[in-house]
Design goal:
Distance between the termini: 14 Å
Helix content: 25-40%
CATH superfamily: Flavodoxin domain
CATH architecture: 3-Layer(aba) Sandwich
CATH class: Alpha Beta
Number of strands: 5
Radius of gyration: 16 Å
């Protein structure tokens, strides 16, 4: 039986390289993992004043994450950190205090960038937040995809065979790790 995995893509851009990576991972991870992208683009900025009567997008997002056993983050790097919509999604899902939908969910991170360091800064900055959110994180293999713009074809599909092979192995390692950590 497939493990349900919520996929949170940090980029909102139409034609996002990271969304292309997430879509490729959906294919490569099957049948062991059933990846489902959970959208974050419509989430109003987190504001504790709204906790008593949360906006509908917050409720929908929290329910979607809660319905999955584990989470895969696929993100670009913005200014050596994660994009604002991804940070906002972490905050929305972690509140109100004591009701975090992230708690104890195994997680993995793939960062992808046209640059040479493959989103290393975003990947590690995100890890800091996930530690606080009590999400055990896959340590190996690490996934920093550099020059991702060269690996995506004109149709927005991940076409580079070496990158596809690496991501297939990453997906297998993630599935194996999920089985071990529960």
């Amino acid at each position: 039986m497939s493990v349900k995995v919520a996929v949170v893509v940090g980029s909102l851009r139409k034609g996002s390289y990271n969304r292309a990576v997430a879509e490729a991972l959906k294919e490569l991870a099957a049948p062991r993992l059933a990846l489902e992208i959970v959208e974050i683009g419509d989430l109003p900025l987190y504001n504790a004043d709204l906790d008593e009567d949360p906006p509908e997008p917050w409720r929908r997002f929290r329910q979607a994450i809660a319905a999955h056993r584990t989470v895969l983050f696929v993100t670009p790097e913005y200014n050596r950190s994660v994009p604002a919509p991804l940070k906002n999604a972490l905050d929305v899902g972690s509140r109100p205090y004591g009701q975090s939908v992230w708690n104890d969910k195994p997680a993995a991170i793939v960062s992808a960038s046209p640059g040479l360091i493959g989103g290393f800064g975003a990947n590690h900055h995100l890890r800091q937040s996930l530690v606080f959110l009590n999400m055990p994180i896959l340590q190996q293999p690490e996934a920093y995809l550099s020059r991702i713009d060269k690996a995506i074809d004109v149709n927005g599909r991940l076409s580079d065979p070496r990158t596809r092979e690496f991501l297939g192995k990453f997906a297998e390692a993630f599935a194996d790790w999920i089985e071990r950590v529960g």
